[in-house]
Amino acid sequence: MLNRLLSNDRPASRTLTLMLLAVLVGLAFAPFLFPGVKALGVAAKVLVFIVLVASFDLLLGYTGIVSFAHTMFFGIGAYGIAIAANTWGPTWGAIGLGFALSLALSLLLSLVIGLFSLRVRAIFFAMITLAVAAAFQTLASQLSDFTGGEDGLSFKLPALLLPSTEFADEPFLGVSLDGRLLTYYLLFVAALGLLLALLRIVNSPFGRVLQAIRENEFRAEAIGYRVVVYRTLSSVLSALFACVAGAMLALWLRYNGPDTSLSFEIMMDVLLIVVIGGMGTLYGAAIGSVLFVVAQSYLQDLLRLGSEAASGLPWLAALLSPDRWLLWLGLLFVLSVYHFPTGVVGRLRLGAALRALKSGRA
Questions:
Q1: Pseudo-torsion of CA 225, 228, 230, 234, nearest 10°?
Q2: pLDDT, tens digit, for every residue of 135-173?
Q3: What is the model's pTM?
Q4: What is the DSSP string of 64-121?
Q5: DSSP bridge partners of 255
Q6: How do 153-154 and 255-256 pair as beta strands?
């Protein structure tokens, strides 16, 4: 049953299996295991990034396409919810309509980009997507009457999802049973379902063709596959999943702006997570998202503690200043790439395969 649920894509490493179980349990019970507003916000961000990174890995890791327009579809999903709720009110109908329209726009734009740009090679396609994403971000910043401009849009959700909605008079295990908790678990179920759906896609015959195109597109075309069609379909699917991730972010924040979902920094974060977790493996999206988001969220706090502890050594305290958290984050990234060139998941799977080979020879 579990094998079918994972689409016959087992972790193939005991350590990786334990890590994935820890991530699953940690996210499933995060409101109870890690109480506090910040901890719950970090867990929700991890869920959003798991979907966003996994959708990008479908494009980069499985198909071999480098695109810088991924956050554009992420932003479309977030703006679809924000604009609809702000225009038509905090109703389920408005949320559903905004979500449907954002999916339709993402489908149209990804199809146009795919059909007109995927015929060009590597770096040229990357530059085209970068230009399109930059133009879209500029457009979102300047259409202030529609998108809120640089200030973005704050909006309300249906009462069922509001923190003020209490489902019980007394907290359960110290946690209030309110609309905020319900929103978190909606995100959790959505992220888990979308990740399993992506596993099914990449392990289907369609996914095998994508991997063949990644390895050698000329050979794939020579044996009869229409490479442009498959690459375009991969681009469209990736965009739709990114759009859903953007909608998840908007539901959690109840706000969206250009810097929240369209910034180039988010695109760079996604690239880093893919490399850290491991390209061409969706499990890497989960592991990498947890490692990166937790480090990004708590590194300043750890540095602050270290700086206070090293107050007797001024040079060390200055080096551990929270203001230098980006330096330490970059150092951690360099070390992770050096020690895990194929990502955390790739390294663990390779180690498990080598151990199995040695035991077989013995």
A1: 160
A2: 888 888 888 888 888 888 898 999 888 888 888 778 777
A3: 0.92
A4: ----S-HHHHHHHHHHHHHHHHHHH-S-HHHHHHHHHHHHHHHHHHHHHHHHHHTTS-
A5: 154
A6: antiparallel
